[in-house]
Design goal:
Helices cover about 65% and strands about 10% of the residues. The protein has nine helices and six strands, in the order αβααββααβααββαα.
């Protein structure tokens, strides 16, 4: 049975289970089929998480553009020696000055500011690439979780159907006088437990599909899958050696460290005083004359030397360096752990498949023996319970292998199929 295919309950399922399925179908009347993983990843380019990351890039680009701006000049108009006491009672002795003032940035402020802005854009793009890798990873896990929940729901349905058949066989033997009524009650109890497990599996399936829909930002909830990502992960060639220093997470931390160092340099340059140059023309009414004037002004760095901002930026740079070291250690550990977990999970899948084959045969033989009156209902129920455990074990092992492969793909900045993330 493929987990991504829909399955309707057989007529043998009891009315309570049918009612549960009908309620679930009514709740998803407007639901849709989730496209294949690669298609869904492309279609969810405007998902809220990715939209947030793109907005951060635009913010950094705006700040970088603003960093190139030069100080605005100013123009002043001033009139002196007017409307006072004699001889300045009127405007005959007025002195009117029109002046142009411009601040000259010294110490390489503008260049350092531009470098900091460009480094901020680079860092935001690196964070965006890491965010896209993280989103592709989370989407793969959500897709796989929905598929696993669908499979568990189908296995629970199988359990109910097999329980119905076992109960029918037990009642037939009781009616024929070959089995005590207690055995039928035991089979009925086992069936009720299977029905309760089906209710839980159906609720978990609804929750898994709801989480997948929310992650992609889909307004219409998904109700089924068009592809099995567990099969896709098993068919994809194993990921080769992973370079931890090429992972998007490490590269983003490296870009953040560089941007922090550039901001520190810009703050240090801000401590250098700027010069304001002025040039103007003055009209002397009493002399009927015009004169030029010019001036230079330089602030005295007595009180404000930008020490607080420099200290804060230096601490930020130190923190970015520490985060880079942490990212390097985490990437190396994650690469080693994920590779080991993937190989272990693949071995676990092989063992689980062998155990399931044995459990299938055990249940088949137990069913034949019980119907022939050569074994008890306890042995049959135990065989069926063992089969359910091994089926779940196979699904757990496949899911663990997929998660390990997805973590390796995230470290390489690619999807589970090996395609680079755009």
């Amino acid at each position: 049975m493929k987990a991504f295919r829909g399955r309707l309950p057989h007529c043998a399922v009891s009315g309570v289970v049918v009612a549960t399925c009908l309620l679930a179908a009514a709740g998803t009347a407007c639901a849709q089929v989730a496209p294949p993983y690669a298609t869904l990843l492309r279609q969810s380019a405007d998902a809220p998480r990715l939209a947030l990351s793109e907005a951060e890039i635009r913010r950094a680009e705006g700040l970088s553009e603003q960093a190139r701006a030069r100080p605005n000049p100013s123009v002043s108009l001033m009139t002196e020696n007017v409307t006072g006491s004699s001889p300045y009672r009127g405007f005959d002795r007025a002195e009117t000055t029109l002046q142009y003032n411009h601040t000259l940035e010294l110490g390489g402020k503008r260049g350092a500011r531009i470098e900091a802005g460009e480094a901020g854009v680079t860092a935001s793009k690196a964070r965006d690439q890491d965010a896209r890798a993280a989103y592709a990873y989370d989407l793969a896990l959500a897709y796989a979780a929905a598929e696993a929940a669908d499979s568990r729901n189908a296995l629970a349905q199988d359990e109910v159907e097999e329980g119905e058949a076992d109960l029918g066989a037990a009642r037939a033997l009781v009616d024929a006088g070959k089995e005590a009524r207690l055995r039928a009650l035991q089979a009925e109890t086992s069936l009720n437990e299977a029905k309760a497990a089906l209710h839980l599996a159906n609720a978990n399936r609804i929750a898994a599909f709801a989480r997948l829909s929310a992650l992609t930002g889909s307004q219409t909830p998904f109700a089924s899958l068009a592809q099995s990502v567990l099969d896709l992960g098993a068919k994809t060639p194993a990921v080769g050696p992973v370079d931890p220093l090429a992972s998007p997470y490490y590269l983003a931390a490296q870009a953040e460290r560089e941007a922090a160092n550039r901001r520190l340099k810009a703050e240090q340059r801000r401590a250098v005083p700027d010069v304001t140059a002025s040039i103007g023309v003055r009209r002397l009414e009493y002399d009927n004359a015009t004169a030029l004037l010019g001036s230079l002004s330089l602030p005295l760095p007595i009180f404000d030397r930008n020490r607080g901002n420099i200290a804060a930026s230096r601490a930020e740079a130190d923190a970015a360096q520490a985060r880079l070291a942490m990212a390097q250690n985490d990437a190396r550990a994650e690469a080693q752990a994920s590779a080991a977990q993937f190989h272990a999970a693949m071995a676990r899948v092989t063992a689980a498949l062998g155990a399931q084959a044995t459990a299938d045969e055990t249940y088949r033989l137990a069913r034949i023996a019980y119907e022939a009156g050569k074994s008890s209902i306890i042995e049959l129920l135990a065989a069926r319970h063992g089969l359910a455990i091994t089926r779940g074990g196979v699904l757990d092992a496949r899911l663990a292998a997929f998660e390990a492969r997805a973590r390796l793909a995230r470290l390489t900045g690619s999807t589970i199929s090996g395609d680079p993330i755009q």
